[in-house]
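pinned: reference chain
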Amino acid sequence: MSHTAHIRSHRKPRRSASTLAMRAGVAGGVLGTLAVAGASGSANAAEPVTQTLELPTLTADLAVQAAQSADATQQAAANYQLLAERDAAAAKAAKQAESDLADARKKAAEAKKKAEETARKEAAARASRSAARTTLSTTADTGTVSTSTSTSTSTGTSTSTSTSTSTATGSAASVVDFVRAQVGKAYVSGATGPSAYDCSGLVQTAFRQVGISLPRVSQDQSTAGTQVSLDNLQPGDILYWGSAGSAYHVGVYVGGGMFVGAQNPSTGVVERPLSYDPPTGAVRVL
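pinned: its structure tokens
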């Protein structure tokens, strides 16, 4: 007998195949359960992650809505500002229109007043001319003067101008006195006094003294009244040189075969006999 025969064996007894199979099945079931549970746990753990991923989408939507709201507010403010500007412009235009209307009414009133004043002066001038003509036609001739002037031509022939005139009265006397008072003053083209004249400026200013408005230039003054013969001149008649309607020079007949005119820059305003520069024709406005 071996010396170890009495020692109890420590080896574990062999398990049977059925026992091992049963234990393997149990272990497999437990592992399957754990796997299912793990999967379920993993699924449950993923839910917060899914919600966290959706948060940026919700935040972006809110940002878009906020931006749209800001744009709408800004547009509304711009619309209000535009309306305010339009209202201000309309108010300004209305105020300007009211001012323009007031100015137009003022100018119209001034124009009406000026037209009435002009009409009054013209009526007074017509009355004055009518009175002067009546005086000339009813007053007996006093101090009739007969004059005869002659000029020689280069051919040796002579021409004569005879005048028979009465002493100036009324408006004609005023015109004669005025032009004689200007004798000695300078001749300046375009001047109408008081220190200088040209020919038509002297005539126009002289007749203005008695309320008669004559055209400014010689051409028009030569047709401003009734054409009269040089043989029947009266003081105050307008003499012209050249053709009626295209005269180049004018003067005033002052009686006694004399005229006053602004001749040229060398002589200025002078009183000369008709023979000094015989006129072409004459018109009477008084």
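why pinned: The helical segments are 17-138, 170-181, 199-208, 218-221. Residues 145-284 form a domain with the endopeptidase fold (from Nostoc punctiforme) fold (CATH 3.90.1720.10).
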